[in-house]
Every structure is written in C-alpha cells, then in structure tokens.
Write a structure and sequence with these properties.
Helix content is 35%, strand content 21%. By secondary structure, the chain is of the alpha/beta class.
Length: 212
C-alpha cells in the first residue's frame, strides 16, 4: 500500500463508496442520473475500470472489490481523471448483488477473476451456478456479461456454466473476440509473456444493443 493509496482510502472512499446496508441500492440517486449501469466484479488495481469509465461518461460504473491497495489506486484514478461516473462497493459480490434491483444492470464485467486453480478450491470460483442465475436476474433486457480470463480450464468451465444459465445467450459460437474498448492491463501483458492464452466470454440477455 503506497502513501497515496492510504491517503485516498482515508479521504476519498467516504465520497465514492456505496455502503451495503441490507437495502436495495438506489443507483439513480447515488449518481444523480438514470444512465446505464455497469457493475464490475473484482476490479483489481482499477486502471482498466478508470480508462473505460473515462471513455464512456454517459455510463455509470460500480466496482466491487476487497483488495485495499486496488481500492486506493482506483480512488486515485477517480480523482486524477476527474471521474463523476464511478463508485465503489467494498465487500462480497454476492452481498452486493443481493442489494441490486432485479433487471437494472446494463453490463457486468469480470476481468481476470481468481481462477482458484487447485481442484479442491474450484468451488470458490465466482462464475458458476447458482450465482450466475443471480447475475442473469440482475441484467436488464439487452444487457451483457463480459468475462476475460487467462486460465484456459476456467474459461472452459465458465463457458459451460454460463451456457446453462437461464436467460443468457452466447453472443458468439464459443469464445468471443477481444473487445476493442477493453484496455490491456499489466496483468494481461504478464500473462501473455508467460505464454497463457487470453479467453473472452460475452453473453447477452435477450438482444444486446451496441453501447461502446
């Protein structure tokens, strides 16, 4: 944790965070508008989140994360870039989505979620039923779920789980081509340097209207 990240957590988190109080979150009140909402599960260091949000000021972004250095870094990016369309939920993704109104989210992002590679830990993976059923229920008609991973086996099992999730349809035959609007992160560059292939999944609820 850098000094800048620590300072951002102390001074900016109260401004840009959304508390989980057990009540349904009123995103329109929080953002002050009814713009489309995209929720990111596990934004890591938050740089990609900030770049995407800066490129799409007419879209509201909410990131869910528990890693405090990453939260601090995203807060620094919010301040540096003057972003008005980003908020942060510090906490568990299941609890966060329980606080989201049904059919209210335009997009869900999962960029390089923890693959839990050991077989005994795979039950901890976030992309599996019944959680994918909850994710689908929160998407509005025309919404999308976009996952990127550098773990081939996880990509294969996620493809099976999402394909079996009621309400979601694969926008491609199997894996998606790289989405040009998603910035490449240092983590992705390291994965490629280590010889790991990047796999992308893009599922939609009903038909997906082009946003980016």
């Amino acid at each position: 944790m850098t000094n800048g990240q620590q300072k951002a957590l102390a001074t900016l988190l109260p401004i840009y965070s959304i508390s989980l109080s057990g009540q349904i979150i009123d995103f329109e009140k929080i953002f002050g508008n009814a713009n489309p909402l995209v929720v990111e599960i596990g934004f890591g260091m938050g740089v990609a989140t900030a770049i995407i949000a800066e490129s799409n000021p007419g879209v509201n972004y909410t990131g869910i994360e528990v890693h405090t250095p990453g939260i601090g870094r995203l807060l620094m990016e919010i301040e540096r870039r003057g972003l008005k369309n980003v908020r942060i939920i510090v906490g568990d993704a299941v609890e966060a989505f329980n606080a989201v109104k049904t059919e209210s989210i335009y997009g869900i992002h999962l960029f390089f979620p923890d693959p839990w590679p050991k077989k005994r830990h795979r039950k901890r993976r976030i992309i599996q039923k019944p959680f994918t059923n909850m994710l689908a229920s929160k998407l509005q008609g025309g919404g999308y779920l976009y996952m990127v991973t550098d773990w081939a086996e996880y990509a294969d099992t996620a493809l099976v789980e999402l394909s079996a999730t009621e309400g979601l349809e694969n926008a491609y035959e199997r894996f998606a081509p790289p989405q040009i609007w998603r910035p490449k992160t240092k983590f992705e560059e390291r994965a490629l340097a280590d010889g790991r292939q990047i796999k992308e999944l893009f599922f939609v609820k009903a038909s997906c209207t082009e946003l980016f």
